[in-house]
C-alpha cells in the first residue's frame, strides 16, 4: 500500500516536483494567513470603506500593471531563481511591516504600500512559478501535478490559512505577519532544492527588449486559436463570476438572511467541495475526456448563477456552493493543464501572465458591473446578469471546446524523444500528433 507521501506526490513525478509542491504549499499557507490578517489590520487602522476596499484592490492592481512584464522576464531568465528572488523580496517587505507594528509606527498608508509591494513581488513569483511544473514533469503527468498544486492552494490558502491568520491577529497584530515571513522564507529554501530548471532556449540570437518579448507572446497567442479561445473563455467567465461575487456578502446576509457566520460558512462549503474534487480528479482524468469535463464544468457554472438567482433558501445556497467547489477545482486544473500542454516552453511565462491579467482584469470589470447592477436592480440582478452572460458565452464557444481539448501539444525535444521511444505524454484528452 503506498504511503501518504506517495499518494500526495506520486513517485513517478520525481523529487524535484516534491520540492516544488512543498514550496507551493508553504507559500500558500503564508498567503492564506495574510488573507484574513491584512483586512483585519487595515480595518483596525481606519474606518474608511474606500481605504478598506483599496486594500483588496492591491491583490489585482500589480497584475494589471506588471503581469505582462513578469511573464516576459520569466521566459528569459532562470525561473527557479526568479521565484526565490521574488519570494525573498516578499519576505523582506512583510518583515519591515512587522518591525513597524512592533514599534507602533504602522499606518494605513504604510500597510497599503506594503500590500502593493508584496503584490508586485508576488506577480513575478507566480509568473515564474507557473512555468516550473511543465519543466519538471512529463506532459502526461501535468493533470495530476496541477491537481496537487491546486490542492495546496485550497487547503493552505483557503481552509487553514485564514482562520489561523484571524486567530493570531487576535493575539497580536504582528503575529500573523511574522508567521507569514517564516512561511515565505521556508518556501524559498524548499524551492532552492530543485536540481534542474534550465533557462528557456529561444530561436532568436538575443532576447531583445521586454516590449519585443511581450509582443512576441501576444502575437503567438493571436495565431493560436485553441489557447486564444481558452484565454477568452476564462476572461469572460471571470467577468460574469465576479459580478455577483462582489456583492455576495450583501446577498447572503441581507437577501438570504444568513448573517455573518452563515456568509463565512458559504466559503467553507465551497472549499469542502473542492476538497472532494482533489481525490476524484485522477479518476476523472482517466475515464472522462477533457472536452466533456470542460463542457460540464462551464454548464454547471451557468446553472449555479441561475440557481442563486432563483433560491431564497440558505440550505440550497450551501448545496450550490458545495457544487461550485467541486467543479471549479476541476475546471481550474484542466484549463491550466491544457494551456501548459499547448504552449511552447519558451513562452510559458508570457502566456500564463496574459491569462492571469485576463483573470484579474475580469474580476475588476465584473465587480464594478456587479455593484452598479445590484445598486440599480437589486441583489439578485447580478446573478441574472451572470446567468445570461455565461450562457451566451458557453453557446458561442461550445463547439470550440472540442478543438481546444483535441489540439496537438507543442512538444519540446525531450517530449518528442519520449514519443519516439513509444511513451504517451499526451494522455487525458490531448491526442498526440501522428
Helix-strand layout with pairing:
Blueprint: H1 4-8, H2 15-45, H3 49-57, H4 61-74, H5 79-103, H6 108-129, H7 132-136, H8 142-171, H9 175-191, H10 210-223, H11 225-245, H12 248-255, H13 259-287, H14 290-310, H15 314-342, H16 348-377, H17 381-406, H18 413-420
Helix pairs in contact: 2-3, 2-6, 2-8, 2-9, 4-6, 4-10, 4-16, 5-6, 5-9, 8-13, 8-15, 11-16, 11-17, 12-13, 13-15, 14-15, 14-17
Helical content (DSSP H or I, runs of 4+): over 70%
| Major β-sheet annotation | none
Apparent shape: globular
Q: Would you tell me the overall average pLDDT?
A: 85
Evaluate the radius of gyration.
21 Å
Helix/strand-derived class? mainly alpha
Count of DSSP-assigned helices: 18
State the end-to-end CA separation: 37 Å
Number of distinct beta strands? 0
What is the strand content? under 5%
Parts with pLDDT < 50 across at least 5 consecutive residues: 203-207, 411-434
Order of helices and strands: HHHHHHHHHHHHHHHHHH
How do you describe this structure in short?
The radius of gyration is 21 Å and the shape is globular.
Description:
There is one protein chain. 79% of the residues lie in helices and 0% in strands. It has 434 residues and is mainly alpha-helical.
Question: Which properties best describe this structure?
Answer:
mainly alpha; 0% strand; 79% helix; 434 residues
Amino acid at each position: 500500500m503506498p504511503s501518504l507521501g506517495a499518494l500526495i506526490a506520486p513517485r513517478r513525478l520525481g523529487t524535484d516536483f516534491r520540492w516544488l509542491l512543498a514550496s507551493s504549499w508553504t507559500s500558500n499557507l503564508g498567503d492564506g494567513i495574510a488573507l484574513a490578517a491584512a483586512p483585519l489590520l487595515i480595518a483596525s487602522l481606519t474606518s474608511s470603506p474606500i481605504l478598506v476596499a483599496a486594500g483588496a484592490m492591491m491583490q489585482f492592481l500589480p497584475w494589471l500593471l506588471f503581469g505582462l512584464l513578469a511573464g516576459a522576464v520569466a521566459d528569459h531568465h532562470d525561473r527557479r531563481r526568479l521565484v526565490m528572488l521574488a519570494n525573498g523580496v516578499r519576505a523582506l517587505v512583510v518583515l519591515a511591516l512587522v518591525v513597524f507594528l512592533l514599534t507602533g509606527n504602522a499606518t494605513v498608508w504604510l500597510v497599503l504600500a506594503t500590500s502593493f509591494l508584496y503584490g508586485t513581488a508576488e506577480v513575478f513569483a507566480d509568473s515564474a512559478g507557473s512555468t516550473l511544473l511543465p519543466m519538471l514533469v512529463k506532459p502526461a503527468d501535468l493533470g495530476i501535478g496541477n491537481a496537487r498544486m491546486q490542492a495546496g492552494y485550497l487547503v493552505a490558502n483557503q481552509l487553514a490559512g485564514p482562520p489561523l491568520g484571524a486567530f493570531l491577529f487576535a493575539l497580536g497584530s504582528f503575529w500573523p505577519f511574522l508567521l507569514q515571513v517564516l512561511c515565505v522564507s521556508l518556501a524559498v529554501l524548499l524551492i532552492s532544492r530543485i536540481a534542474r530548471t534550465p533557462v528557456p532556449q529561444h530561436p532568436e540570437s538575443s532576447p531583445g527588449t521586454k516590449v519585443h518579448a511581450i509582443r512576441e507572446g501576444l502575437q503567438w497567442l493571436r495565431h493560436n486559436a485553441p489557447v486564444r479561445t481558452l484565454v477568452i473563455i476564462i476572461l469572460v467567465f471571470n467577468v460574469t463570476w465576479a459580478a455577483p461575487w462582489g456583492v455576495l456578502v450583501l446577498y447572503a446576509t441581507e437577501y438570504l438572511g444568513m448573517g455573518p457566520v452563515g456568509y463565512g460558512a458559504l466559503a467553507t462549503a465551497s472549499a469542502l467541495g473542492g476538497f472532494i474534487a482533489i481525490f476524484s480528479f485522477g479518476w476523472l482524468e482517466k475515464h472522462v475526456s477533457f472536452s466533456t469535463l470542460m463542457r460540464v464544468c462551464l454548464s454547471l457554472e451557468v446553472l449555479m448563477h441561475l440557481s442563486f438567482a432563483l433560491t431564497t433558501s440558505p440550505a440550497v445556497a450551501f448545496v450550490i456552493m458545495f457544487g461550485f467547489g467541486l467543479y471549479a477545482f476541476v475546471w481550474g486544473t484542466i484549463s491550466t493543464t491544457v494551456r501548459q500542454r499547448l504552449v511552447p516552453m519558451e513562452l510559458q511565462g508570457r502566456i500564463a501572465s496574459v491569462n492571469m491579467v485576463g483573470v484579474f482584469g475580469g474580476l475588476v470589470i465584473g465587480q464594478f458591473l456587479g455593484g452598479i447592477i445590484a445598486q440599480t436592480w437589486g441583489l439578485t440582478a447580478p446573478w441574472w446578469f451572470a446567468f445570461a452572460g455565461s450562457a451566451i458565452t458557453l453557446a458561442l464557444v461550445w463547439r470550440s471546446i472540442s478543438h481546444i481539448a483535441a489540439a496537438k501539444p507543442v512538444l519540446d525535444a525531450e517530449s518528442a524523444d519520449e514519443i519516439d521511444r513509444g511513451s504517451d505524454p499526451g494522455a487525458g484528452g490531448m491526442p498526440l500528433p501522428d
